[in-house]
TrEMBL record:
Domain of life: Bacteria
Protein's name in the database: GMP synthase [glutamine-hydrolyzing]
EC supergroup of this enzyme: ligase
GO terms for MF: ATP binding; GMP synthase activity
UniProt entry keywords in alphabetical sequence: ATP-binding, Glutamine amidotransferase, GMP biosynthesis, Ligase, Nucleotide-binding, Purine biosynthesis
PANTHER family referenced in this protein's UniProt entry, alphabetically: GMP SYNTHASE [GLUTAMINE-HYDROLYZING], GMP SYNTHASE-RELATED
Length: 514
């Protein structure tokens, strides 16, 4: 595998994914971590990522000094290159004008990093500092359009550096450069595929679990369903239990769909918990979004606590559909002090913490990215309607009913949203959209129904395109479809008299309304 040191650069995840795409496994660790335990025999090379910091700034992340005495090759990207230069005695200085965007590369002294790549390819730059003096032993490999060092190396020590970002899609031959490094210079083998993952992870799971029982908490989303599929494929289905909590804030038919799907995958023990009253009670009368989120999150923990303890006992394993990005986001990375915009509910009750302390948690997707989970789901035979499902927030309809939540409003929103999403599927629009849903507004407006005056709710439709939910653009909805869907909703859901389309991007708006 290739080990990546994360110095907090925006595109660090992309480096890892690009390399996995051509079949070499990657692991990301914080850039300033002690390397001892991470430098296992299977590490064939190390990459130092970019960073929002300058090397000479206070608080700039510094790698373990061991990094320069390794037997395996090193590649510094942007800050990573500047870090190497600075730490080995070279000079890094701010530029009068930042180099940003496309820049043509010209070779000065080509090496294997650029094997089979023609001179003059277009790279992608994003830096305000540049190398003033190279470190001892380094030579200039290539220059940018502005005659700044674009790549340097010390071939004898196996240390390479790029000022530009090969992981960004705008960079021509970017993947080829990463492949030249990982497979050519480091000699890593292309052995990473979903099939090998299933085989290896399956073996590990069987060994760890033995003949103990496993309980998987399932939300109905892609991750937990795929985790369930993997457990059923690798372990004895008679030993695998599934627990699903119906909060009353789920979409129409969702609970039935979840249980049907699990049965199709071979599930034998399904524990469907009807907790609808426990959620709707405490929510009544509350209209503040953060308080609603807290109520739902806390109740989730309370219900889970009760149900986990009463479902199984003894030293069984608890499984969760945690992804690689969840682990990194929960604070393993560097410089991730993001501001809390909304308190996401991260489920973690005492019973789960106890299991963790006892070493009885299994997270069979913990090394996978979302797109890899989708691929795994397809290989396991999970239907596309689940695998390609849009994200659905933990607090569910509770944050899509603006203001006070009631069962009546949940039912109205369920009916409307069902029509909306079904129509998107029928019209072939669902897969063009990253996330689409309806929002029930706490506003009534006047209309006419038959010959009578009508006074009913306003519904907002949302549809966005995005790659990770961090930023989002409004989906350019075909007007004809929008008009037809609006008519279908107002004709069939009697409490909705008016439909609007949300045309705000993120930022400044968020994807959800609360
Ligand atoms: P926002 O509204 O912050 O949403 O732009 C970004 C993405 O996160 C989802 N979201 C949540 N997911 N628990 C979740 O699991 C939550 O509390 C939560 N709140 C928002 C949202 O649907 C979008 O995909």
């Amino acid at each position: 595998k290739i080990l990546i040191l994360d110095f907090g650069g925006q595109t660090c995840q992309l480096i890892a994914r690009r390399i996995r795409e051509f079949g070499v496994y990657t692991d990301i660790v914080p850039g300033d971590i002690e390397l001892e335990e991470h430098l296992t025999d299977d590490v064939k090379g190390v990459i130092l990522s970019g960073s929002p910091y300058s090397v000479y700034q206070d608080g700039a992340p510094v790698p373990d000094k061991k990094i320069f005495d390794l037997d395996v090759p090193l590649l510094g990207i942007c800050y990573g290159l500047q870090r190497i230069t600075y730490d080995l005695g070279g000079k890094v200085a701010p530029l009068a004008t930042k180099e940003y965007g496309r820049s043509k590369i010209s070779y000065q002294n080509k090496n294997d990093l650029f094997k089979d790549i023609p001179d003059g390819f277009v790279s992608w730059m994003s830096h305000g500092d540049s190398l003033d003096v190279l470190a001892d032993g380094f030579t200039l490999t290539a220059l940018s359009e502005h005659n700044l060092p674009a790549s340097v190396c010390d071939v004898n020590r196996g240390i390479y550096g790029l000022q530009f970002h090969p992981e960004v899609t705008h960079c021509e031959f970017g993947t080829k450069i990463l492949e030249n490094f990982a497979c050519g210079i480091c000699g890593a083998k292309k052995e990473w595929s979903m099939e090998t993952y299933i085989a290896k992870e399956g073996e590990k799971l069987r060994e760890r679990v033995g003949d103990k029982e496993v309980l998987l908490l399932i939300s109905g989303g892609v991750d937990s369903t795929v985790a369930g599929g993997l457990l059923l494929k690798t372990l004895d289905p008679n030993k695998v239990h599934f627990m699903y909590i119906d909060t009353g804030l789920m979409r129409k038919g969702e609970s039935e769909e979840v249980s049907e799907n699990l049965k199709k995958l071979g599930a034998k023990h399904l524990h469907l918990i009807d907790a609808r009253d426990r959620f709707l009670g405490p929510l009544s009368g509350e209209s503040d979004p953060e308080k609603k989120r807290k109520i739902i999150g806390n109740m989730f923990i309370e219900v889970q606590e009760d149900e986990i303890r009463s479902t199984l006992s003894g030293d069984y394993f608890l499984a969760q559909g945690t992804l690689y990005t969840d682990l990194i986001e929960s604070g393993k990375g560097v410089g991730k002090n993001a501001q809390v915009i909304k308190s996401h509910h991260n489920v973690g009750c005492k019973a789960i913490e106890e299991k963790r302390e006892a070493g009885l948690i299994i997270e069979p997707l913990e090394f996978l990215y979302k797109d890899e989970v989708r691929e795994l789901g397809r290989i396991l035979g999970i239907s596309n309607t689940i695998v390609d499902r849009h994200p659905f927030p933990g607090p569910g309809l509770g944050i899509r009913i603006i203001g006070e939540v009631s069962k009546e409003k949940c039912d109205i929103l369920r009916d409307a949203d069902y029509i909306y999403v079904n129509e998107l599927r029928k019209r072939g629009l669902y897969d063009k959209i990253w996330q689409a849903f309806s929002v029930l507004l706490p506003v009534k407006s006047v209309g006419v129904a038959g010959d009578a005056r009508d006074y009913s709710y306003v519904l907002a439709l949302r549809a966005v395109v995005s790659s990770d939910g961090m930023t989002a653009d409004v989906y350019d909805f075909p007007m004809k479809d929008l008009l037809e869907i609006s008519a279908l909703i107002t004709n069939s859901v009697k409490d909705i008299g008016r439909v609007t389309y949300d045309i705000s991007s993120k930022p400044p708006a968020t994807i959800e309304w609360e």
